[in-house]
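Ticket #4471: structure export looks truncated?
Reporter: QA, pipeline team
Priority: medium

Steps to reproduce: submit the single chain below to the structure queue and open the exported record.
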Amino acid sequence: MKANKLMLAAMMIGAMAMVSCEKNKVPEPPVIPGGGDEAQVPELDPVEGACVLVVKFDVAPCNDVQFVGTYKKADGTAMNWNEDATHVRFTPVKGFEGWYSVVVYPNDSADDKGFFIKGKPVQLGEGEKFNWSFQWARNSVTIVDGLFTLGYENGADETEGEPFIGFTETGTVATVTSSGWATDPCAAAVPATAAWIKHASNDENHPAWTAEPMDKVSEGVFTHTFVYADNGVNIGDTEECASWFPATDIEGLDVEGMAGKKITITFTSKSGALGTVSAKLAE
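Actual output as written to the record:
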C-alpha cells in the first residue's frame, strides 16, 4: 500500500513538472510560409499614433534605406516625396538578419485614397545621392502580416506598377519582404548592353511614356531622337526603364527653348540603368 502511494506521488510530481515545462515554453517565432526554418519573422510592438513598417530585404542594402513618401517624422516635419536624403531611415531589427524597420507618423489629413501615410523604401546611392532607381523593384514585394495596403503606381498591377505601402490608420505594424531593387547601387559597375527610354512627346511616331529601344552608338552609349515636349526621361537597361532623370539632371536640356523641337538624347551607361544623360537639338 505504501509503495502504491509513493508511485502515485511520483506520477503526480512528474505530471506537474510536465505542465510547468509546457507553461514556461517560449513559443517559436512565426515563419514565412514556404520560407524554411531560417525565415523567422520579427514581431515588433505597435507604436501609439504611428505606423511601423518591417521589411526583409533579400538583397542586402550597402547604403542607408529611406522611407520615401508622404507622412510626418517623429518631430512633426511633414514629408512629401522629397527627392533628397532627408527622409526617415530604416534600422536593422536586432537578432533578425536582413530585416529592417521604420516608424512613421500620419499626415493631418488623408489623400484621395484614404491614406494618411504612403511611401516606399528607396536606398541611397554613393555620397547619399537620391535616385528613384534605387527603390524596391516591381513585382518584388510579398505580404507577411499587418493591416495596410500594398498598392501600385506608374503601372496597372504588380507586374507593371511600382509598389508602395499605404496606411489608413495608426497603431499597426506592416510586415513584408522584398526580393530586390529596381537598380542595385551595390552591384558591380557593368555598362548596359542595351537601353530603353520613356518620355513625354509631341511626336506621333514616338508615343508618350512608352518604352522604346535606344540606338547603340558605341559600348555603353545610346541615343534617341524625338520631338521634345517637356519633363525629364525614364531610361533603363530593360523595358521597365528603371532610372528617372529629371530635366535638371540632363546636360544641355533647355526645357522651354527645346519644347516642340526635335532633339537627341544621349545616355552613357556607367552601370546598367545608371549613368549620365545629355540633350541637344537634332541635326
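Status: closed, not a bug. The export was complete when the record was re-opened. Leaving a note from the reviewer for reference: The longest strand covers residues 262-271.
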